[in-house]
UniProtKB/TrEMBL annotation, chains A, B:
Native source organism of the sequence: Crocosphaera chwakensis CCY0110
Protein name as annotated: Sodium/hydrogen exchanger
Sorted UniProt keywords: Antiport, Cell membrane, Coiled coil, Ion transport, Membrane, Sodium, Sodium transport, Transmembrane, Transmembrane helix, Transport
Occurrences of domain Cation/H+ exchanger transmembrane (ranges): 27-402
Coiled-coil features, chain-numbered ranges: 451-478
Amino acid sequence: MSLEASAADMAIQENLEQFLVVLSVSLSVATISRIFSWFRQIPYTLLLVIVGLGLAFIDVRLVNLSPELILEIFLPPLLFEAAWNIRWRELKENWIPVVLFAIVGVIISVVGIALALSQLTDLALPIALLVGASLSATDPVSVVALFRELGASKKLTVLMEGESLFNDGVAVVAFLLLVGIPLGTEVFSVTDTVLSFGKFVGIGIGLGCLVGFGISYLTQRFDLPLVEQSLTLVSAYGTYLITEELGGSGVISVVTVGIILGNFGSRIGMNPRTRLLVSEFWEFLAFFVNSIVFLLIGDQIEFDSLSDNLDIIGIAIIAVLATRFIGIYGLANFSNVFTKVDISLPEQTVLWWGGLRGSVSIALALSVPVSLSGRQDIIDTVFGVVLFTLLIQGLSTQWVLKNLNLVGDQPLRQEYSELLARKMALGRVIDYFQTLDESPSIDSEFYRYEKELVTGQLKSIEEKIADFQQKYPQLESIAMQQLKDTLLDIEADTYAELIRNGKLGKNLSPIMLEILTESSEH
Amino acid sequence: MSLEASAADMAIQENLEQFLVVLSVSLSVATISRIFSWFRQIPYTLLLVIVGLGLAFIDVRLVNLSPELILEIFLPPLLFEAAWNIRWRELKENWIPVVLFAIVGVIISVVGIALALSQLTDLALPIALLVGASLSATDPVSVVALFRELGASKKLTVLMEGESLFNDGVAVVAFLLLVGIPLGTEVFSVTDTVLSFGKFVGIGIGLGCLVGFGISYLTQRFDLPLVEQSLTLVSAYGTYLITEELGGSGVISVVTVGIILGNFGSRIGMNPRTRLLVSEFWEFLAFFVNSIVFLLIGDQIEFDSLSDNLDIIGIAIIAVLATRFIGIYGLANFSNVFTKVDISLPEQTVLWWGGLRGSVSIALALSVPVSLSGRQDIIDTVFGVVLFTLLIQGLSTQWVLKNLNLVGDQPLRQEYSELLARKMALGRVIDYFQTLDESPSIDSEFYRYEKELVTGQLKSIEEKIADFQQKYPQLESIAMQQLKDTLLDIEADTYAELIRNGKLGKNLSPIMLEILTESSEH
């Protein structure tokens, strides 16, 4: 036992050192990219891939990215964070296209890619199916970040992120069902496959609901921010491991837990302050993990091996683009006809072109058993396609968004929100002066002068706001909502902060509570 | 390479599962202890030790706590967090007693315990010296938490925490210098020892300063909260590993980095929002690590082995208490004579009795080479003493504090602060009503009624505050300062939050900035 643990510790220590190196490189990239403004056009994650490629090119290999590392250590927090942040209401509005993309889209993608590769290259069909399954999970990190930055519509973000959350699970399950075939341990049968699929997904959703609602009701019984924060972490990893242990889909269960805790548990069980704390913690964790993953994706590339397979990769890229073209345009128009959601042609185009492949694809390719003879072909093809989608599609998505006029009126909104925020802050400064007035030990002359200055500033800002409201009446409702949200957050945070510091008891003014609940329902 | 990595991954996965179990147990303890109020009297960490002991008693062993795990994985974040939060100003005011306790106190402790054990038991002097060094690092987690909860003076907290931060380093260095002697690889020589000690400490402080100030000036050049947060994590682990690699004291370098970043870097390089984020992140990490460590301390106990060594443990306990008695009373009175700091007799008593031993002692004992014949004696003695200090001293410290009248007027202050906070929050509610007035789509009758209710409440609270101020004039200044701090924090947070969300540009109103800077100097 002692020896065993010591080996594990050495592994931990070695890993710790390696990851510190990786993180240092990633953070340098993050820092340098902000200092030289030219780099800011490139999403952070894509910049990491490029730097990783550079390191791979000079044969500096940082950490060996194994499927276990991706699937068990990196994926649960990434999926949990995305699921935690997705709004149930928005997902519900768009659930039909999301489910169509995530299930039918994956089937189209697996079958299409497999057929293309088996017909046009000398890959055997079972191997081609594995490539297809690996390449059917989309990775929206960089694209969604772009959407947010450029102020694309919420619908677009939800479609992209929702699809990706669920198609990860479907692709992993499809891969697991297909991986037995080339090994000869399994014969393909539609009934068995549907049954297995149902079992994987059913156990995943079932356990996810159990843990999600269990923790939601549990956290309602106490108010311990640090414990609740820890519980989200334990639930993300724990649910994944337990579900996998029981033969279900860990990916699907983590997504389920994340959606439940983010939309339900965090509202009924956490005070607003805790919710904010937990969100910030997961935002950090996701940043942290992404900083590692994308650098390592680039750093894993074997240029020699890739260049040997350029023909297969080329065909795979075309197949990936073609199947996604069919999937997105076909399913989006199908959903346009049968649901209230309207996905316009430009939106379809962005969804098509922005469907990047990332860490899940790589994890699946790497998890092909070493005993399988086509393993290296699978890995090379998947790496090649991932690289193409990240670099070529990823770097041009911004251009596509802009040329399709899908960029929102973000700059205008921002200017207006800035004015509102200034007004709010200056109002607070004046409040602050009033608290100073009450305390005797202050040079009143100086403060009166300062106060007048601020009051003057406030007036000129109020004039500008009125001006803005006249010119752009459409802004008012949006910004007013934003301001209300902010005010409510601050109000709630104030209470929670004071409670946390032990400066205030836990029984809030009931009127306050009432207002909070009411306004959040507006 | 692939095989190697795969072994490491399996170790990671196994460790992940084990730690999830440990965390689940710890979180259950945290939760249950809050639901049944009787448990709330016992500090969380001590409760974990007791539960761990219970698990060890029924022979459920969760994870093998190895010295590498404690020293390389658990200790850096704990030290960094404590150092990050210690206020330089307060430390500076009390630096003479802190340094005396941390250096002279450790020497008294090592020598005293070693002499007692070598004279009164059959332990050889070199072995007894290692026990002495292991037992010279104090662990203030539970005691400092008690201090805060009961409102003990800041001086007491700083003395306890400062001593512990530095004596960890000194004890580790002393241990490393002494561990060569019984192995015969080193002969004791005062000159060599002093030189080695200087080298260890010098490299530690030097590298700590380099990294600390380096990162401080680096973060001043950009405003990227997630990167800055990651940098603190990388710097904690990275500095530790690099310093150890270069033959310095990792413990001392982490403490140095933590103090610099917490007091200097976070002020010049981080916006207030980021500082808060980072503090909250480290608070969580420390909670997380402590939840693991204290449970495992209890869970490591081998009852059979301990009971065989009860005589040595008994003598060691008396020696630990006696040397700390001499150290604290002697050095405190020495410092009282030569400095402005006045440590009263009751305060000395709490410092003496509250000097618990924890994870560092255990890590040092476990790190004794397996080849040394007295290893099990050292481990048993140290575990026995740690258990005594945690359970007997730890659980009675609250009683000691109360009986020595060192508990502050916390309840009174809290009631008053609560009133002030309510006033502030209700004021905000009224502000909020005003923003609602401007929006047309609201049932004005209903809101007018609600507004009057709130206004009425506000008035009655203001009356209570006036009443309080008359009765307890000493409260006013404290609470006013608290309120000001809170207001400033909120003000700064508002700006930072809005900037972070991209709702506001980065150029703050200069008057606002001025006010912020000025008031923080009051």
